[in-house]
Give the backbone structure.
Amino acid sequence: MTQSDIGTLTTPSRTVATLALLLALLPVLAINSNYLIAASEGLVPWCIPYLDSCTSISATGRDGFAFYFFKATMLPLAACYWLYWSRCSQLSLLTSRQQRLIRVLGAVSVCALVVYVCALGAIGDIFQLSRRIGIILYFTLTYLCQLLLVKALIRTGRNYFLSAQQGLLGVILLIGLLTLILDVVMNDYDAIEDAFEWNIALLLHANFLLAHFYWRSLQCELRG
């Protein structure tokens, strides 16, 4: 990677690195804290949801104080997602098509998250449908934005954190395909579906952590 390329990349990278770190840590802390609150209120069972599949992420935010905590933490985080994808879409190494795709898909994923969070806990078929569409779009479009960004950055050269992001995106894709297969071949797939949801959410946010270290590594390379 040339010094010019690094300079182009690192122009927004201080802010991008900070946002990536926030998106790696805060949603995971919020989701798991909400589970602990809901479990302590007797709204969901005590377990390790990543392994036991005892409750969904949605179930932890439907009632009690956890209902308000989930909305109070996740709605402000939607602004962080929007800022992150907006900043990333401004990178000049991206083609105009890639910039537009990341900006649009990122914005739609944020809107889907807001719809999901606002509909959570509301009663009625329309709200259930909104939650379902919202969470599917949020996960899918967040993944696609990560994939598009990593694909563009790899053209400038690889480093450990960028390669790790690429590998983790591959793992997430395999898990997603596995869930589709299991849903077709298993009669009791619903019994394990929730664990997949928890783990996919964790891996998506782990990718933000790898992205944070990638941006930081570029800063160090530029200073060196």
User: Anything to note?
Assistant: Residues 3-223 form one domain. The longest helix spans residues 190-223. The radius of gyration is 18 Å.
